[in-house]
Specification:
Blueprint (H helix, E strand, L loop, with lengths): L5 H30 L3 E4 L3 E6 L15 E4 L5 E6 L3 E7 L10 E2 L5 E12 L4 H7 L4 H18 L4 H4 L5 H17 L2 E14 L2
Antiparallel strand pairs: 1-3, 2-4, 5-7, 6-7, 7-8
Helix pairs in contact: 3-5
Length: 201
């Protein structure tokens, strides 16, 4: 067997540190995988609140933007849409137990359908999560819409409301509803009342 030449010895000595680096990298990767939680994806058009046992508030102050993120063990994710959402509703539902009609200035009862488009304020996602979570539409948006309509329609005469509210009626409701939703972290994009009718007492 031929003895190793000086050049081969030098190559062997150069290869040993590289092997050590690979081993160190593998160990680091294993340790990193052991100390991190799952890999999560936040879809486009959403922000995500990280529920975390590592902060006093119980959640990270800054929501995660769309993209791929690592969570720590024990953390979980709650995503919220930042794109426009729409909802329709009624006042004066014929179903028993449904929402009661609004009342005009003279006491006439008015049944109507309403429609609104809104979006969650990206800067208020964490507060919305704490106060409402996924209940914001049923327990915040719709009750506010119905309440504002009842409150403001009491200042208008039936002929200003039926069969379709005059522009100043709709605008007054939209302005007040937008203000109240904004105070709760929700931006009103549009509001309309397609139809309204008088109903028997």
């Amino acid at each position: 067997m031929n003895p190793e030449t000086p050049s081969k010895k030098r190559i062997s000595r150069l290869l040993i540190p590289g092997g050590c680096l690979v081993a160190v990298a593998l160990v680091a990767l294993v340790l990193f995988a052991g100390f991190t939680g799952p890999l999560v994806y936040v879809p486009q058009g959403s922000l995500a609140v990280v529920v975390s046992p590592y902060v006093p508030a119980g959640y990270r102050a800054e929501p995660l933007a769309p993209g791929v993120h690592f969570l720590l063990p024990g953390e979980s994710l709650r995503a919220y849409p930042t794109s426009a959402q729409s909802v329709s509703f009624a006042l004066g539902s014929p179903n028993p137990g449904g929402p009661a009609p609004a009342e005009a200035r003279d006491g006439s009862r008015v049944a109507l359908t309403g429609s609104l488009i809104y979006s969650l304020n990206p800067h208020e996602i964490a507060r919305l999560h704490v106060e409402w979570q996924s209940r914001y539409e049923d327990e915040l948006v719709l009750p506010l819409a119905r309440g504002v309509i009842r409150e403001l329609m009491a200042g208008f005469w039936p002929e200003q409301i039926v069969p379709q509210p005059q522009p100043q009626v709709t605008q007054a409701i939209a302005d007040e509803l937008g203000r109240r939703l904004g105070e709760n972290g929700i931006d009103l994009i549009s509001f309309s009342i397609p139809e309204a009718e008088l109903v028997a007492p």
